[in-house]
Amino acid sequence: MQYIGLIGQSISASRSPSLHNMLGELKQLPVSYELQELDSSAVEAFTERLSLIREKGFIGTNVTFPFKQIAVDSADEVNDSVKKVGSTNTLLLKDGKVCAFNTDYTGFIRGYRTRLADQAAGKVLMIGAGGVGRAVAFGLFEVGATELFITDLNVAGAEALAQSLNDAGYKATVIAADEVADIAKGVDGLVNCTPVGHYKTPGNPLAASAFGGQKWAFDAVYTPLDTEFLKAANAAGLTIVSGFDLFFYQALDAFEIFTGVQVDDVTPVWNQFREKYDVVSDLI
Protein backbone atom coordinates (compact mmCIF):
# COMPACT_ATOMS: atom_id res chain seq x y z
CA MET A 1 0.00 0.00 0.00
CA GLN A 2 1.20 3.51 -0.90
CA TYR A 3 0.10 6.03 1.70
CA ILE A 4 -0.56 9.70 0.86
CA GLY A 5 -1.65 12.40 3.30
CA LEU A 6 -3.27 15.81 3.51
CA ILE A 7 -2.10 18.04 6.36
CA GLY A 8 -4.32 20.96 7.32
CA GLN A 9 -7.11 22.27 9.49
CA SER A 10 -10.88 21.85 8.98
CA ILE A 11 -10.36 19.24 6.26
CA SER A 12 -12.83 16.55 7.35
CA ALA A 13 -15.11 17.27 4.35
CA SER A 14 -12.27 17.16 1.79
CA ARG A 15 -12.96 15.25 -1.44
CA SER A 16 -9.23 14.69 -1.97
CA PRO A 17 -9.22 11.14 -0.51
CA SER A 18 -12.06 10.14 -2.84
CA LEU A 19 -10.30 11.46 -5.94
CA HIS A 20 -6.84 10.10 -5.16
CA ASN A 21 -8.15 6.70 -4.11
CA MET A 22 -10.24 6.54 -7.31
CA LEU A 23 -7.15 7.40 -9.38
CA GLY A 24 -5.31 4.59 -7.61
CA GLU A 25 -8.08 2.15 -8.52
CA LEU A 26 -8.10 3.28 -12.16
CA LYS A 27 -4.33 2.90 -12.42
CA GLN A 28 -4.34 -0.36 -10.43
CA LEU A 29 -2.17 1.13 -7.71
CA PRO A 30 -2.75 0.32 -4.02
CA VAL A 31 -3.19 3.92 -2.82
CA SER A 32 -4.59 5.07 0.53
CA TYR A 33 -5.09 8.83 0.94
CA GLU A 34 -5.42 9.71 4.62
CA LEU A 35 -6.39 13.04 6.21
CA GLN A 36 -3.99 14.50 8.77
CA GLU A 37 -6.20 17.07 10.48
CA LEU A 38 -4.48 19.27 13.07
CA ASP A 39 -6.04 21.32 15.87
CA SER A 40 -3.09 23.68 16.10
CA SER A 41 -1.74 26.08 13.47
CA ALA A 42 1.70 26.16 15.11
CA VAL A 43 4.80 25.38 13.06
CA GLU A 44 5.66 22.63 15.55
CA ALA A 45 2.33 20.90 14.96
CA PHE A 46 3.03 20.75 11.24
CA THR A 47 6.63 19.58 11.52
CA GLU A 48 5.71 16.92 14.07
CA ARG A 49 2.97 15.50 11.83
CA LEU A 50 5.23 15.58 8.78
CA SER A 51 7.91 13.71 10.74
CA LEU A 52 5.34 11.15 11.89
CA ILE A 53 4.05 10.31 8.41
CA ARG A 54 7.60 10.11 7.08
CA GLU A 55 8.37 7.55 9.78
CA LYS A 56 5.27 5.61 8.72
CA GLY A 57 6.52 5.45 5.13
CA PHE A 58 4.11 7.85 3.40
CA ILE A 59 5.18 8.58 -0.19
CA GLY A 60 3.86 12.14 -0.09
CA THR A 61 1.40 14.58 1.37
CA ASN A 62 -0.66 17.51 0.25
CA VAL A 63 -0.65 20.63 2.40
CA THR A 64 -3.48 23.07 2.88
CA PHE A 65 -4.48 25.99 5.10
CA PRO A 66 -2.71 27.26 7.15
CA PHE A 67 0.55 25.46 6.38
CA LYS A 68 1.33 26.19 2.70
CA GLN A 69 4.09 28.70 3.40
CA ILE A 70 5.30 27.01 6.58
CA ALA A 71 5.81 23.78 4.65
CA VAL A 72 8.42 25.32 2.34
CA ASP A 73 10.87 25.48 5.25
CA SER A 74 10.60 21.71 5.71
CA ALA A 75 11.66 20.98 2.12
CA ASP A 76 15.10 19.79 1.08
CA GLU A 77 14.36 20.62 -2.56
CA VAL A 78 11.86 23.05 -4.06
CA ASN A 79 10.37 23.00 -7.55
CA ASP A 80 10.42 26.14 -9.72
CA SER A 81 6.70 26.65 -9.05
CA VAL A 82 7.44 26.92 -5.32
CA LYS A 83 10.27 29.34 -5.94
CA LYS A 84 7.87 31.54 -7.91
CA VAL A 85 4.88 31.37 -5.60
CA GLY A 86 6.61 31.14 -2.23
CA SER A 87 4.36 28.34 -0.95
CA THR A 88 3.75 24.63 -1.46
CA ASN A 89 0.74 22.34 -1.38
CA THR A 90 2.46 19.11 -2.44
CA LEU A 91 5.38 17.37 -0.72
CA LEU A 92 7.00 14.30 -2.27
CA LEU A 93 8.68 12.13 0.37
CA LYS A 94 11.31 10.14 -1.47
CA ASP A 95 14.83 8.82 -0.87
CA GLY A 96 14.98 10.46 2.55
CA LYS A 97 14.17 13.90 1.13
CA VAL A 98 11.20 16.27 1.17
CA CYS A 99 10.62 17.77 -2.29
CA ALA A 100 8.14 20.65 -2.59
CA PHE A 101 5.83 21.45 -5.52
CA ASN A 102 2.89 23.80 -6.04
CA THR A 103 0.08 22.10 -7.93
CA ASP A 104 -2.33 24.94 -7.13
CA TYR A 105 -0.20 26.87 -9.62
CA THR A 106 -0.05 24.13 -12.27
CA GLY A 107 -3.63 23.04 -11.61
CA PHE A 108 -4.97 26.54 -12.19
CA ILE A 109 -3.08 26.77 -15.48
CA ARG A 110 -4.48 23.40 -16.64
CA GLY A 111 -8.01 24.34 -15.57
CA TYR A 112 -7.85 27.71 -17.31
CA ARG A 113 -6.55 26.21 -20.56
CA THR A 114 -9.15 23.44 -20.49
CA ARG A 115 -11.91 26.06 -20.40
CA LEU A 116 -10.35 28.87 -22.45
CA ALA A 117 -7.71 27.14 -24.58
CA ASP A 118 -5.22 29.74 -25.86
CA GLN A 119 -7.31 32.81 -24.98
CA ALA A 120 -5.03 35.25 -23.16
CA ALA A 121 -6.14 36.24 -19.67
CA GLY A 122 -5.56 39.93 -20.45
CA LYS A 123 -6.21 42.48 -17.71
CA VAL A 124 -7.46 40.82 -14.52
CA LEU A 125 -9.01 41.91 -11.23
CA MET A 126 -8.23 39.52 -8.36
CA ILE A 127 -9.94 39.71 -4.99
CA GLY A 128 -7.90 37.94 -2.31
CA ALA A 129 -4.13 37.64 -1.99
CA GLY A 130 -3.74 34.71 0.40
CA GLY A 131 -2.19 31.28 -0.17
CA VAL A 132 -4.21 30.18 -3.18
CA GLY A 133 -4.26 33.78 -4.43
CA ARG A 134 -0.47 33.77 -4.72
CA ALA A 135 -0.51 30.58 -6.79
CA VAL A 136 -3.30 31.82 -9.04
CA ALA A 137 -1.66 35.24 -9.48
CA PHE A 138 1.55 33.75 -10.84
CA GLY A 139 -0.46 31.25 -12.89
CA LEU A 140 -2.39 34.10 -14.51
CA PHE A 141 0.76 35.48 -16.09
CA GLU A 142 1.51 32.03 -17.52
CA VAL A 143 -1.84 32.16 -19.36
CA GLY A 144 -1.39 35.60 -20.85
CA ALA A 145 -2.30 38.12 -18.17
CA THR A 146 -0.97 41.56 -19.10
CA GLU A 147 -1.85 43.37 -15.87
CA LEU A 148 -3.21 42.28 -12.50
CA PHE A 149 -5.18 44.47 -10.10
CA ILE A 150 -5.18 43.07 -6.55
CA THR A 151 -7.44 43.94 -3.64
CA ASP A 152 -7.53 42.38 -0.18
CA LEU A 153 -8.66 43.36 3.30
CA ASN A 154 -5.09 42.50 4.31
CA VAL A 155 -3.44 45.39 2.48
CA ALA A 156 0.06 44.37 3.56
CA GLY A 157 -0.48 40.90 2.07
CA ALA A 158 -1.72 42.37 -1.20
CA GLU A 159 1.25 44.71 -1.38
CA ALA A 160 3.68 41.86 -0.69
CA LEU A 161 2.15 39.79 -3.50
CA ALA A 162 2.22 42.73 -5.92
CA GLN A 163 5.87 43.34 -5.06
CA SER A 164 6.74 39.70 -5.71
CA LEU A 165 4.98 39.80 -9.07
CA ASN A 166 6.62 43.06 -10.09
CA ASP A 167 10.02 41.75 -9.01
CA ALA A 168 9.41 38.79 -11.34
CA GLY A 169 8.89 41.17 -14.25
CA TYR A 170 5.09 41.20 -14.27
CA LYS A 171 2.72 44.14 -13.84
CA ALA A 172 0.64 44.17 -10.65
CA THR A 173 -1.09 46.98 -8.78
CA VAL A 174 -2.86 47.04 -5.41
CA ILE A 175 -6.20 48.84 -5.45
CA ALA A 176 -8.44 50.05 -2.63
CA ALA A 177 -11.93 48.70 -1.99
CA ASP A 178 -13.57 51.85 -3.35
CA GLU A 179 -11.76 51.38 -6.68
CA VAL A 180 -12.96 47.83 -7.30
CA ALA A 181 -16.23 48.61 -9.09
CA ASP A 182 -14.58 50.93 -11.62
CA ILE A 183 -11.61 48.64 -12.24
CA ALA A 184 -13.92 45.64 -12.72
CA LYS A 185 -15.58 47.27 -15.72
CA GLY A 186 -12.27 47.68 -17.53
CA VAL A 187 -10.77 44.21 -17.18
CA ASP A 188 -11.00 40.97 -19.17
CA GLY A 189 -11.12 38.58 -16.21
CA LEU A 190 -12.53 38.50 -12.68
CA VAL A 191 -10.97 36.27 -10.00
CA ASN A 192 -12.15 35.42 -6.49
CA CYS A 193 -9.49 33.97 -4.20
CA THR A 194 -11.25 34.84 -0.93
CA PRO A 195 -13.34 32.41 1.16
CA VAL A 196 -16.48 34.46 0.42
CA GLY A 197 -18.99 32.21 -1.29
CA HIS A 198 -18.09 29.12 0.74
CA TYR A 199 -20.87 27.36 2.67
CA LYS A 200 -19.43 28.75 5.90
CA THR A 201 -18.98 32.29 4.54
CA PRO A 202 -21.76 32.78 1.97
CA GLY A 203 -22.13 35.76 -0.31
CA ASN A 204 -20.42 37.40 -3.25
CA PRO A 205 -17.15 39.34 -2.82
CA LEU A 206 -18.08 41.53 -5.81
CA ALA A 207 -21.25 43.57 -6.31
CA ALA A 208 -23.56 42.05 -8.91
CA SER A 209 -23.51 45.34 -10.81
CA ALA A 210 -19.76 44.90 -11.41
CA PHE A 211 -20.29 41.87 -13.66
CA GLY A 212 -20.65 42.48 -17.38
CA GLY A 213 -18.30 43.35 -20.20
CA GLN A 214 -15.56 40.97 -19.07
CA LYS A 215 -14.67 37.75 -20.92
CA TRP A 216 -14.11 35.18 -18.18
CA ALA A 217 -14.23 34.56 -14.42
CA PHE A 218 -12.63 32.17 -11.92
CA ASP A 219 -13.68 31.35 -8.36
CA ALA A 220 -11.32 29.37 -6.12
CA VAL A 221 -14.25 28.33 -3.91
CA TYR A 222 -15.78 24.97 -4.89
CA THR A 223 -18.07 24.16 -1.96
CA PRO A 224 -20.68 24.89 -3.21
CA LEU A 225 -19.78 24.42 -6.87
CA ASP A 226 -22.19 27.11 -8.06
CA THR A 227 -21.09 30.07 -5.98
CA GLU A 228 -22.87 33.41 -6.08
CA PHE A 229 -19.77 34.81 -7.81
CA LEU A 230 -19.95 32.25 -10.63
CA LYS A 231 -23.72 32.57 -10.94
CA ALA A 232 -23.36 36.33 -11.45
CA ALA A 233 -20.52 35.80 -13.94
CA ASN A 234 -22.54 33.23 -15.88
CA ALA A 235 -25.59 35.50 -15.96
CA ALA A 236 -23.39 38.24 -17.45
CA GLY A 237 -22.21 35.91 -20.23
CA LEU A 238 -18.68 35.26 -18.97
CA THR A 239 -16.85 31.96 -19.56
CA ILE A 240 -16.46 30.11 -16.27
CA VAL A 241 -13.36 28.54 -14.73
CA SER A 242 -14.51 26.92 -11.49
CA GLY A 243 -12.92 26.07 -8.19
CA PHE A 244 -13.66 22.44 -9.00
CA ASP A 245 -11.43 22.77 -12.08
CA LEU A 246 -8.58 23.87 -9.81
CA PHE A 247 -9.30 21.11 -7.27
CA PHE A 248 -9.41 18.43 -9.97
CA TYR A 249 -6.28 19.40 -11.89
CA GLN A 250 -4.13 20.16 -8.85
CA ALA A 251 -5.04 16.68 -7.58
CA LEU A 252 -4.09 15.05 -10.90
CA ASP A 253 -0.76 16.85 -10.90
CA ALA A 254 -0.12 15.82 -7.28
CA PHE A 255 -1.06 12.17 -7.96
CA GLU A 256 1.42 12.06 -10.84
CA ILE A 257 4.15 13.54 -8.62
CA PHE A 258 3.46 11.10 -5.78
CA THR A 259 3.18 7.93 -7.85
CA GLY A 260 5.18 8.68 -11.00
CA VAL A 261 2.17 7.49 -13.05
CA GLN A 262 0.75 9.79 -15.72
CA VAL A 263 -3.01 10.35 -15.96
CA ASP A 264 -3.55 10.87 -19.68
CA ASP A 265 -7.21 9.84 -19.90
CA VAL A 266 -8.47 12.97 -18.14
CA THR A 267 -12.03 13.20 -19.54
CA PRO A 268 -13.13 9.71 -18.41
CA VAL A 269 -11.63 10.39 -14.95
CA TRP A 270 -13.49 13.72 -14.75
CA ASN A 271 -16.80 12.13 -15.76
CA GLN A 272 -16.41 9.12 -13.51
CA PHE A 273 -15.54 11.19 -10.45
CA ARG A 274 -18.45 13.58 -10.99
CA GLU A 275 -20.88 10.70 -11.42
CA LYS A 276 -19.54 8.54 -8.58
CA TYR A 277 -19.50 11.33 -6.01
CA ASP A 278 -22.56 13.22 -7.24
CA VAL A 279 -20.63 16.35 -8.23
CA VAL A 280 -23.55 18.24 -9.75
CA SER A 281 -23.41 21.77 -11.12
CA ASP A 282 -25.28 23.84 -13.65
CA LEU A 283 -22.11 25.74 -14.59
CA ILE A 284 -19.32 23.17 -15.04
Automatic annotation (TrEMBL):
Gene3D superfamilies, A to Z: Leucine Dehydrogenase, chain A, domain 1 (3.40.50.10860), NAD(P)-binding Rossmann-like Domain (3.40.50.720)
Top-level taxonomic group: Bacteria
GO BP terms, alphabetized: aromatic amino acid family biosynthetic process; chorismate biosynthetic process; shikimate metabolic process
Keywords: Amino-acid biosynthesis, Aromatic amino acid biosynthesis, NADP, Oxidoreductase
Pathway of action: Metabolic intermediate biosynthesis; chorismate biosynthesis; chorismate from D-erythrose 4-phosphate and phosphoenolpyruvate: step 4/7
InterPro entries, per the entry: Aminoacid_DH-like_N_sf, NAD(P)-bd_dom_sf, Shikimate_DH-bd_N, Shikimate_DH_fam
One term of GO molecular function: shikimate 3-dehydrogenase (NADP+) activity
Keyword Methyltransferase found: no
A matching Pfam family: Shikimate_dh_N
Entries under NCBIfam families matching the protein: PRK12549.1 (NF009201)
UniProt name for this protein: Shikimate dehydrogenase
Species name: Marinomonas communis
Lineage: Bacteria, Pseudomonadati, Pseudomonadota, Gammaproteobacteria, Oceanospirillales
